[in-house]
Amino acid sequence: MNKTGIALCMALCLSSFAALAKDPHQVNIAPCEGLDADGIAAVIKGDYQQNRIVSWPDDQKKLGQADPVIWINSKEITGKDDSWKIPLTVRGMNTDIHYTVVVDCKKGTADYQS
After folding, report:
1. Cβ neighbours of residue 79 under 8 Å, at least 6 residues apart?
2. What is the C-alpha separation between 40 and 6, in angstroms, rounded?
3. Which of 43, 66, 81, 111 has its CA 20 to 30 A from that of 11?
4. Which of 92, 46, 95 is nearest to 72 (CA)?
5. Is residue 90 classed exposed, middle or buried when 0-12, 13-18 and 19+ CB atoms within 10 A define those classes?
């Protein structure tokens, strides 16, 4: 293999690792410090409806639609000190998708974990 082939191979490998390092389901959200369980539920539901479903085409394909039913039972939310775990259910024509959304209000991040 010549030097160009080796360089190309290394570049592809490094770009693959960089893509794996950034989790596409870890996102920035609006500030949410000081909210209670109902408030954080509203933030995450709105975030998914307005931002995630339109930017995650794999979810649309799985669900079979772009306007799914989204719900959160605020009694199942756990957390304190602006750190939350929110169970999120998204129902489409084909299937349901379940996420546990881990929110850090101080950092303004949400990690949608399947």
Report:
1. 40, 85, 103
2. 49
3. 111
4. 46
5. buried
- For tokens 């000190």, what's the residue? 81
Long-range contacts of 80-83 (CB under 8 A, 24+ apart): 82/32, 82/33, 82/34, 82/35, 82/106
The shares of helix, strand and coil residues in the chain, as percent rounded to the nearest 5, are 40, 30, 30
Mean pLDDT over the full length of the chain: 85
Amino acid letter for position 24: P
Chain segment 37-77, per-residue pLDDT in tens: 999 999 999 999 999 999 999 999 999 999 999 999 999 99
Alpha helices in 1-114 (DSSP H): 3-21, 37-47, 53-55, 57-63
**Three-state secondary structure call for residue 70:** strand
Both tokens assigned to 89: 């259910």
| pLDDT at site 11 | 41
Using the structure block, give the residue that is written with the tokens 């893509």. 19
Given a contact cutoff of 8 angstroms between Cβ atoms, the answer to whether 63 and 56 are in contact is no
